[in-house]
Amino acid sequence: MQRLMCKGKLHRVRVTEADLDYVGSVTIDEKFMKEADIKPYEMVQITSLKNATRWKTYALPAPEGSKKICLNGPPAHLFSPGDIVIILSMAQMNEEEIDLRLVVF
């Protein structure tokens, strides 16, 4: 049996930018991506603590150490600089692959 599992989590990170004039994605500090095991172009889910908005898109790396979290394209209408969000990465896993350790930042 396959289960959809949370494999990485960036908990309560602050949106630093929202750029409407982009084709769409979320740009995340490369250090954060490494720590949460998020690969470039991997699908992620972003949830706003302010209004429970949830968005799925792909992640792009920002320069390491920049602390950048930028919502690009359509989600720029839904998330604003200063918003606190949770970013989840997920994976299909079988029972042998499941590791219940959750990376939280």
CATH architecture: Beta Barrel
Beta-strand segment tally: 7
Structural class: mainly beta
Enumerate the strands of the largest sheet in spatial order, edge to edge or round the barrel: 1-7-4-5-3-6-2
Task: Describe this entry's structure for a reader.
The chain contains 1 helix and 7 strands, in the order E-E-E-H-E-E-E-E. The chain is mostly beta strands and 105 residues long. It has one domain (10-83): Barwin-like endoglucanases. 29% of the residues are buried. Residues 101-105 have low confidence and may be disordered.
Give the tags.
single chain; mainly beta; Barwin-like endoglucanases; 7-stranded mixed β-sheet; 7 strands; disordered C terminus
Summarize the structure.
The chain is built from one helix and seven strands; from the N terminus they run βββαββββ.
Secondary structure: elements and pairs:
Blueprint: E1 2-14, E2 17-19, E3 25-29, H1 30-35, E4 43-48, E5 54-62, E6 69-72, E7 84-94
Parallel strand pairs: 2-6, 3-5
Antiparallel strand pairs: 1-7, 3-6, 4-5, 4-7
